[in-house]
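Next up, sample data:
>
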Amino acid sequence: MRDRPVSAIAARWGFADAAAFSRVFRAAYGLPPGEFRLAVSVTSGAAPPR
């Protein structure tokens, strides 16, 4: 799902907006979704998201 915007992922999971999703995501994983994506792409060797 790296090619999908965070807002699309949030909507898929029933969040009304990306900000609410980001708050819940940060509480669960310690990073906002965008930073988490970047960290995963750097450690996995994958190309960073566009």
